[in-house]
Specification:
The structure is a homodimer of 454-residue chains.
Chain A (H helix, E strand, L loop, with lengths): L3 H4 L25 H4 L7 H8 L9 H4 L6 E2 L11 H13 L16 H11 L10 E4 L2 H12 L5 E5 L12 E5 L18 E5 L11 H14 L2 E5 L21 H4 E6 L1 H4 L7 E4 L12 H12 L5 H10 L2 H21 L1 H4 L13 E5 L5 H12 L1 E2 L1 E2 L10 E5 L4 H15 L8 H4 L7 H4 L9
Parallel strand pairs in A: 1-10, 3-4, 3-5, 5-6, 6-7
Antiparallel strand pairs in A: 2-8, 7-8, 9-12, 11-12
Chain lengths: 454, 454
């Protein structure tokens, strides 16, 4: 298949290709480069960013093979319409902006007071989170970037490996916390050096591992003894289907003294394009000089951000209303079904993987093989686009990620092809094995207990 | 008046007070600080940011003196409803999100192709700007922050003094380009040392000075000979009422080889709360190593940003439609009237200032007096809130900024009070005097030509 061979190499181009709008950068011959080149040095960090973790250009394949019936289970995107209740609230806000009475200009950079209050009360009920601890934003990825800006580039960080490739390239020293079948996808903290920051995503993208209560307690305790700050990404929390915590603030203190939580309406409310998220920084959290982390973040939000769109915030309010929550639950069930389809990998056992992944993606292990080879084989023989695991870090070698975000029929067709290609395999890892302290029903306990292999 | 005395000092608190949601940062006595304080060092840049330019807490005065009939002409905010055509387009997008056919998830981080195209074609007609040079964002302030992130903190910068206090505190060396009555509010470039970046806002907030074509040519030529990059902020361009350029790309080459332009829908379309802006980085612009600036910015947008809200972008499309542009022109006239009201300072000559300010703010000179003293006097005797000029930098000493963004009746009442307080003064500076190459009508030419004084 055209283009596959060159894709067997790790991606080395820019992210712009992701959206099929690759730009050409040529110098206009009418104005020779030697005359007009600026003397402004390029930021060395940008170089690091280019050479850091990168997603492959899988998304661009649609265009490269226009004749093939390609199905993309690659990048993944939300597909489920937003409940009418929520879109109606947003539309109403739009209309109000055309009236003298309803018009509003700049809002608070930290978000509308009512929405901050509702997030604190609904999402963090009984967790000791106050309205003023909540900062409303345009999304988790943007907030992680602002947190990085606040922290500066001299702090040391630890990140899960694999994990979603946000730009850790800025930081001075990075420790990779390997999350593999060997440690059942939770890092060995006793072997992790002290760092200033610990980025922790749960459920983790791409492994789908949701940390148990005991594991999060261990993490909080580890951070406390090291004087570290956890940056906890709970963007996928709504996919958790068992009793695993949906927030770092569900575990006992000193949770509020060591953790920031970043989250988003993108997945749980289908707001990927609407743009709405939030970050919680408890007022108890301080830097080593005793100064408030929240106050610095407040300053960053006011200086580098001007508030989330008022329309999106109206949507967020509706989502968190009692009726909105019910609508959302229905959508969530749909998404879980979707994930189970892509999870043909798990249900039909065509490959190894976690028995229960709390994510709309499936993380599939092909021990002994290289991610890019598997990616190429699936692409060539099944016409299905996946993401090679190494796009999520060195620890992703041997894996591919299959997205369940997509039109249901397409996901089902892709699963049929994958089963034809790989057949049924029955080797799975049970959640029970790695989820310390989690309870599992007896039926599940009868599933085979083996490390994944193909 | 209660609270005035302490306001006679420059502002030294955090920005959080701006929105009256000041946070208290205390340590919960149940969990002593010595046990839980993290060992994460505070970013030294945050310290710099705290000590940099700061706006006063004027906005908080509403609450401090609830009994007084205070009128705020301080911070300034958009007040004019958005044309129905535009809000209807946004509402339609909201409704579509609740249907299977109309639902869209993540958009391109750089903005929808159609909107990028329309900005290039409508705003930059015949200026050689391509669709791919345009990055759609959630606002100019946010883009300036992302540009700073791209550039890193080792570059040197020049900024107008006074100027709107964005966070230049990050940069290594800062040159202040004084813009005062003495140089007719355009900096003396022959006395400005070379820097990597030159931030230039036109019309300038707060001085209201719109650079003439000849001045911008001079600026571009200065940047070219120094190998500098201009970051041109045209957020207020729609207030320009004469033939001054509304974009840096209106002047001849090498404009595209030396300039980035940042702009926004906030002022010209009333999108302050909706959040939509854009940045233009021509593909011709390169760093000293010949690498593309646009490509690095593209990477920043994809890593630190996830696209502007799809709903806001639909509004932007409607704004730039032929009918939308007409609606906007009407709104613009209204705003100009508003500005002229606040500009009682100019029309009624109650204070010195530029004869024609291309801004909805009036920058008023009180030679020999301190900004904070004037601010206090106006507050105490006229119950009107303004912004002390020093909030915009050391060059703002002796000035106050009066906003024309507000309810028309309130602005008119404030002007009556100001005239009562200061009487009529006839001393003005004519635009002709500082605007090299600009033509002025004969009537205007008969106005007195003097430096401002009270």
């Amino acid at each position: 298949m055209k283009g596959v061979s060159k894709l067997s190499q790790p991606f080395s181009k820019t992210w712009s290709l992701w959206h099929k709008n690759g730009r050409r950068f040529t110098i206009d011959p009418l104005w020779p480069a030697e005359i007009c080149q600026t003397r402004v040095p390029r930021n060395a960090n940008m170089e690091k960013l280019q050479n850091g973790y990168l997603f492959p250009e899988a998304a661009g394949l649609h265009e490269e093979a226009p004749g093939a019936e390609l199905i993309s289970l690659g990048v993944g995107d939300t597909t489920q319409p937003i409940p009418r209740l929520v879109t109606a609230a947003m539309a109403e806000t739009c209309h109000a902006l055309s009236t003298s009475e309803g018009y509003r200009g700049y809002g608070a950079e930290q978000g509308n007071e009512e929405l901050r209050k509702r997030i604190a009360e609904v999402i963090y009920e009984d967790m000791g989170i106050k309205q003023t601890d909540v900062f409303v934003s345009d999304g988790a990825q943007c907030d992680i970037s602002r947190i990085q800006m606040m922290m500066g580039s001299n702090v040391t960080v630890a990140v899960q490996d694999p994990t979603f490739p946000v730009r850790y390239g800025w930081y001075g020293r990075i420790e990779y916390m390997r999350c593999s079948p060997e440690n059942l996808f939770f890092p060995d903290l006793s072997a992790t050096p002290r760092t200033d920051l610990i980025f922790f995503c749960s459920p983790n993208n791409p492994t789908g591992h949701a940390a148990s209560r005991a594991q999060l307690e261990q993490l909080v305790s580890f951070a406390k003894s090291n004087g570290s700050i956890i940056i906890y990404d709970s963007a996928y929390a709504s996919f958790i289907s068992d009793s695993s915590p949906k927030s770092i603030y569900e575990v006992p203190e000193p949770r509020r003294y060591v953790a920031i939580e970043v989250s988003s309406f993108s997945k749980f409310a289908g707001f990927a394009g609407v743009r709405l998220g939030w970050t919680v920084i408890p007022e108890e959290l301080t830097f080593s000089d005793g100064s408030s982390v929240g106050r610095d973040f407040d300053r960053i939000m006011c200086t580098c951000f001007n508030g989330a769109s008022s329309i999106a915030q109206a949507g967020g309010m509706a989502c968190l209303s009692p009726r909105g929550s019910r609508c959302h639950e229905e959508g969530h069930q749909w998404l879980q079904g979707q994930r189970d389809d892509a999870g043909g990998g798990v249900r039909f056992g065509w490959a190894g993987g976690l028995r229960r992944q709390e994510l709309p993606y499936v993380w599939v292990h092909f021990p002994g093989r290289r991610s890019w080879d598997v990616f190429g084989e699936i692409l060539e023989k099944a016409n299905v686009v996946t993401i090679p695991g190494t796009g999520f870090g060195p620890g992703g070698e041997g894996f591919v990620r299959v997205s369940g975000f997509g039109r249901r029929e397409a996901v089902q067709e892709a699963c049929r092809r994958l089963r034809r290609l790989f057949g049924r395999r029955s080797v799975v890892v049970r959640k029970r094995d790695y989820s310390v302290g989690a309870t599992e029903d007896a039926a599940a306990a009868s599933a085979p207990v083996l490390l994944p292999r193909i």
